[in-house]
Amino acid sequence: VRLFNDSSCSDAALLSGTVEASGHHGQATPAKAFDALTWTEWRAQCYSCQEEEAWIGARYAKPQRVYCMQLWQRGEGDYRTTRAALERWEASTGSWERILVGRGLESGRWDQVNFVHCGSVEVPENARVEITNNGYYPSDATFTCRGARILSGWSKISCSADGDWYTLGESGRRCWSMLEGIIVLAAFAALEAFAVGGYWYFVIARRVAPPLAAEAYIPEEHMRHWNNEFIVDLQEYARPQLLWCLFCPCCRMADTW
């Protein structure tokens, strides 16, 4: 067994501590599990152990961060395990806390189980990001803007098991200043006023706009009744047209014309 304080299991990050174990058989003492020699072995006190019946670990004089472990097994069949867990002692609760699990382990080779370090995160201008779990999977990144600014795009993203960040909404992430927000709102308000004014002048006041078709796309029973079922009951080709008219002032005026 080898424990490291980096996720790449480099030799320079190898940790050493006082070896402890659930027990041993004969001369196969726990210390032989940490001597880095593959021809020596530690044998647990049980021959065919149940889950968590056999364990081995290290006690350190001061707290350590373990990001990677390597395991070499010599046994075959029932005398090897396909799954191993890394646990730490949580003094506040007085119990062991499982933090890393390796599966698909084999014998006769070094199996490596490590935490995945998430990649770098692109931070927009005038923004800051807070990353949980020291940037190791599972991890979340939360974006906030400095000063009186408004964030557009997703404010929180998660790291995947392969170390990549989910990029949904990343292209639109930006910190807008109050002045920029006022300009955008003013432009939208002016566009709405233009659309409403044009509708009133050409349709209500002058009444010169002829209907585009003799029959409407809207079912007769929904005329003058706006509710959630209104869009659902429309024909498929009419739904996108209605949505455009609802959210686009110019489209709404053009469709009215």
UniProtKB/TrEMBL annotation:
Tell me the keywords, alphabetical order. Answer: Disulfide bond, Membrane, Transmembrane, Transmembrane helix
The UniProt record lists the keyword Phosphoprotein: no
Question: Gene3D superfamilies under this entry?
Answer: Complement Module, domain 1
Annotated TM spans: 182-202
Q: In its UniProt entry, what is this protein called?
A: Sushi domain-containing protein
